Automatic annotation (TrEMBL):
The active site is at residue 441. PROSITE patterns: ADPK. Its cofactor is Mg(2+). The gene is pfkC. The keyword tRNA processing does not apply. It holds the Pfam family ADP_PFK_GK. One of its GO terms (cellular component) is cytoplasm. It is an enzyme of class 2 (transferase). Belongs to the carbohydrate kinase PfkC family. This is ADP-specific phosphofructokinase.
Length: 459
């Protein structure tokens, strides 16, 4: 771990596109019971069966929340109604507000780990948002001034008139029990439910036309890029643009970033409820990048739109490791990725083709960076310095670890895996995490950065 922390001080990373404010509620039994009382168990059950993929009214939210609590799976559902946005504000008191979005979370993490340079971009940067980035010389926002690329601290670069996007995060904990009509539900795993604000202002996931010509220059300044936020796209926009338009622009960005230097690009996937949009993002973006990270719900969602519905349902319902391995193989091959990383509550997995320059041992080391960082963040709330990582290293691997390894070896023996390198490690699981939102982003950032550092040593 310490060798990586040293390497990180020499590395640069570009991050785009999504940053927001996470307004967090720690859900307890009382919250849930009062929601059920207010909306009625029967109404909620009926709406759960309908499975709304957007939140148009409060009942949509309650139904999807209870569904998430029942499965214990990490979920995110778009909020599209201004009315309901107001309802959230009057209905909940938020426990804390923190920086959110893959860019926000990863930028602060890498800057605090003393990366040489972190360039964080999002099309919108309001004042409140800028204030949430850590104020350090190594965290910079790109702007164009007098025809030149200038990197500025977010506090010197924000635009007063830019709106700030607020997502609501409901943190739930394993063991929470409540009644839905006659049914008693016990939350099986801890996690978060995200109400992702999807107003049109926030849905233009793109590089500003002004900055775009400088992407090759930015690419030259860094060792890698982590791209995310495509989940924020809409199918249609009021000015006639559509998801295809933004995805074409997104593909241009990827090519521009690599124009002067062949940097590795990681995409951190996030839940996309709309199946058509999900498919578009996968087919347009994945084949252009090297590395993709996602959680277990997301791999199930992806397999479902690629046509593997049965496998997808199995992953969702039974959490069996052999299904995850099979799913990962399919994804790696069909989209021809260099490396795929899947994070779940109990284990992290990498799959690459057999000709990957890293050994299985090295790949495992890279995953260990990810889980150590997540455990540190889960314990402390935030990683403020490289020192904090030690806290993560003291968190033991979870008690299901040995079982997971055994099942993994069994799965490998049964399956054709010779053309791949597949490794898993158990997670270091914190019993009472400060929060869980962003732990996946943390794992992926640590895994990808250490992957780059290991590749660098081979040169
Ligand atoms: N209490 C915990 N301690 C350590 N790691 C955790 C804990 N809870 C969750 N994690 C890790 O965080 C991951 C969550 O990832 P993900 O669902 O992508 O979250 P997010 O998108 O909010 O970052 C889990 O798969 C697990 O590996
Ligand atoms: O999909 P959006 O609205 O960009 O939000 C991403 C969400 O995912 C997270 O980055 C966690 O992975 C949250 O902090 C954030 O609320
Ligand atoms: Mg995630």
């Amino acid at each position: 771990m310490m060798e990586f922390l040293k390497d990180f001080q020499k590395m640069g990373m570009y991050l785009a596109y999504n940053v927001n404010v996470d307004a967090i509620v720690y859900l307890n039994e009382k919250h849930i019971e009062s929601l059920i009382k207010e909306f009625g168990a029967e109404n909620i059950k009926k709406r759960m069966d309908e499975y709304p993929r957007e939140i148009n009214e409060p009942l949509d939210f309650v139904a999807r929340l209870v569904h998430a609590l029942k499965t214990g799976k990490p979920q995110a559902v778009p909020l599209v109604s201004y009315e309901t946005d107001k309802w959230f504000n009057s209905r909940f008191k938020y426990d804390i507000e923190r920086i959110g979005g893959q860019v926000g979370i990863i930028a602060n993490l890498l800057a605090n780990l003393n990366f040489n340079r972190v360039i964080a971009y999002s099309p919108l940067l309001g004042k409140k948002q800028a204030e949430m980035f850590v104020n350090k010389d190594n965290l910079l926002y790109p702007v164009v001034e007098n025809g030149k690329l200038v990197l500025k601290k977010p506090l010197e670069a924000y635009r007063e008139s830019d709106p700030v996007k607020i997502n609501r995060i409901f943190e739930f904990r394993a063991g929470t029990k409540f009644k839905l009509g006659d049914e008693t539900i016990e939350v099986p795993y801890s996690g978060r439910f995200i109400v992702a604000c999807r107003f049109e202002d926030f849905a233009r996931i793109e590089t500003s036309p002004e900055l775009k010509p400088y992407l090759p220059e930015i690419g030259e300044m860094v060792d890698g890029a982590i791209l995310s936020g495509y989940q924020g796209l809409r199918k249609y926009y009021s000015d006639g643009k559509d998801a295809n338009y933004y995805l074409r622009k997104a593909k241009e960005d990827i090519k521009l970033l690599r124009k002067k230097k062949d940097i590795k690009i990681h995409v951190e996937f996030a839940s996309i409820q709309d199946r058509e949009l999900r498919k578009k993002v996968i087919y347009n973006i994945f084949p252009l990048v090297d590395s993709v990270g996602m959680d277990e719900a997301e791999i199930a969602h992806i397999l479902s739109v690629l046509g593997y519905r049965e496998l997808s349902d199995r992953i969702f319902t039974y959490n069996r490791i052999e299904d995850a391995v099979l799913g990962a193989k399919i994804l790696l091959d069909e989209l021809n990725l260099e490396i795929l990383q899947v994070h779940t509550i109990y284990y992290l997995m990498y799959i690459t083709h057999n000709d990957n320059p890293l050994t299985e041992e090295e790949l495992r080391k890279s995953l260990e960076v990810g889980t150590a960082l997540a455990a540190a963040r889960a314990s402390l709330g935030d990683i403020k310095s490289p020192e904090d990582v030690k806290v993560g290293l003291k968190v033991p691997f979870n008690e299901k670890g040995e079982y997971v390894k055994l099942r993994f070896e069994e799965a490998k023996a049964k399956m054709r895996t010779r053309e791949y390198k597949i490794v898993i490690i158990p997670t270091r699981l914190v019993k009472n995490p400060v929060s869980t939102v962003g732990l996946g982003d943390t794992i992926s950032a640590g895994a990808f950065a250490s992957y780059l550092s290991l590749l660098g040593r081979k040169e």
